[in-house]
Amino acid sequence: MTDSDDLAIVVEALTKRYDDLVAVNEVSFTVRKGEVFAFLGPNGAGKTTTVEIIETIRPPSSGRVRVLGMDVTKRKRDIVRRIGVLPQAFSSFDRITVSESIRFYSKLFESKVADVDNLMDLTNLKDKSGVQFKHLSGGLKQRLGIAIALVNDPEIVFLDEPTTGLDPHARHAVWDVLSDLRSKGKTVFLTTHYMEEAELLADTVAIISKGRLVAIGSPDELIERHANNICLTLKSSDAGAVETIRHMGFKPVRSDRNTITVRVTHTEDVQDILNAINSAGVPMPVIDVRKPSLEEAYLRLTEGLRDEGALSEGVAT
Hints:
317 residues, alpha/beta, Rossmann fold, Alpha-Beta Plaits, six-stranded mixed β-sheet, 11 helices, 14 strands
């Protein structure tokens, strides 16, 4: 793997050990400049450890990590000046306002003074500029956190689960901010537990499990490779429809007397099921057909890996 002018991050054979525990095991990937890169994995998979090494917070045991062409073990101060970080547990001072918070954090970067108005515009906080932090909703606090992560005009922004715990409206507002960051050419490194978020926003998705990278590609590529099943749910007041599907040999994902959900590989399977129900002479059920999703690909790739050989909480996360 070689560095290139269009690469923001290069991770090569990254390994992190804690005594006999291998938290990250020979992980390699690249992040292109200007893309949204989603890094996914179960708790204890080595995700947080990997990100903290890239952010220069932890040293690697072996391997090579370069951020904007700089080695994380040799040029930490230079890297920190050119990245922004929103930690998962972001907080600020309760009694200072939105605009005061941004100004305060901008003073930590000696080389630049943040354009507070521009940052509030970007994160849709202009009408909240005089509101104290303690009076902000969860979604507004996260948007303020993103604004603060941008005070040094970073080339790469690391966002650790920026929408966790937010209601759907607040989550979509954060998504709009992330889309704006991409349109401005920022590289966004996103960790999230929301598969819909990664599928919608990310250009590239990487999945780590048990310290190893198990898949990388665009959301569509991962879905095509690992989630090619169609999810079919049928509801009927006549139990005969459910029994007909059972007798066809399809393994139910969920079922009760009047509802059954199965995964099928081909659209022809859907038609075969409908033909069989029709031939059985039972009323046609209500049908819901759901296309494959990134969530299905993620579950398939990490199935059996979350508990087996799980890494110690608080060390390999």
